[in-house]
Amino acid sequence: MKQQTLAMAADENAQYERYRRPTKRDAFLATMEQIVPWAELCEVIEPHYPKAGNGRRPVGLDRMLRMYFVQHWFNLADAACEEALLDSTALRRFVGIDLGRERVPDATTLLKFRRLLEKHKLGEALFAKVGEALQARGLKVGTGTIVDATIIGAPSSTKNADKKRDPEMHQTRKGQQWYFGMKLHIGVDSQTGLAHSAVVTAANVHDKHPLPQLLHGQEEEVFGDCAYASQEDLIQAKAPNATDLTNQRVRKGSVTEELERLVNRAKSRVRARVEHVFGVVKRLWGFDKVRYRGLAKNATRSFVALGLANVYLARGILHAQVRP
Predict the structure, then answer these.
(1) Which partner from 146, 265, 274, 277 sits 20 to 30 angstroms from 198, CA to CA?
(2) If you count DSSP H runs as helices and E runs as strands, how many of each does the chain have, helices first?
(3) What does the alpha-carbon distance between residue 180 and residue 166 come to, in Å, rounded to a whole number?
């Protein structure tokens, strides 16, 4: 066991700051420390991670994964994540950095780690591994799926070196408002409220097109908003036993208008659970705008964010299981 340095002792601060109380950040990091399946996630990345003996000794995989997750949770750029670790004792304690013995991994190291995940498409693999870990802990995928999509904005300005916008992003209209960026399509279990599938497309792709990819095939019920109305053929092609419970468009002025609204409202009581996932990813963790160019890089971020959102949304059950 390594001897504790003065820097680490100051970070622990149990004896030096008598009147300090845990912050919300401290509580959040302590919870995620307990419930994230660290060992399983490291197993996914380890075959692709640099080994010692080929140049400079690599930073520990567990440490880099923690730093990468901190970047997601607090919506930080690479350089900003390095600065945050230098500034915050709570983050250093979570990542496991002792400034008396070692440096904080710099922005370039984090950039290379992120590119490693993107190159080998490990974002999707991490998302799948989180799903397996949650199912092993009793959060099984049921027979109902809620499908939905959300727009993630991208810079529409052409004031850059190339004098053009990201060619993989496109514009679309929602209501009377135009948006430019990409779409994140997800399938969420209607019982647990956890995402089990996801697809990333340009924003101009209609919500219905990725629909079969969002179903696991064993559904008995499929919920969705009016964008998925009248898509029984697509649903039946992937889940032949599923009942189409997507909201249908209301015919204004018809004698059945009020009844149609009541039916849609009843379906929406279940369908609304999909918004909890988007609320965590976009509002709590700030992924309402892309940080990188191209769909592939942002798809990796999307899959990792969804996996972490699943863990966060299931924190009550997971924390009860690990509590002594």
Answers:
(1) 265
(2) 13, 6
(3) 10
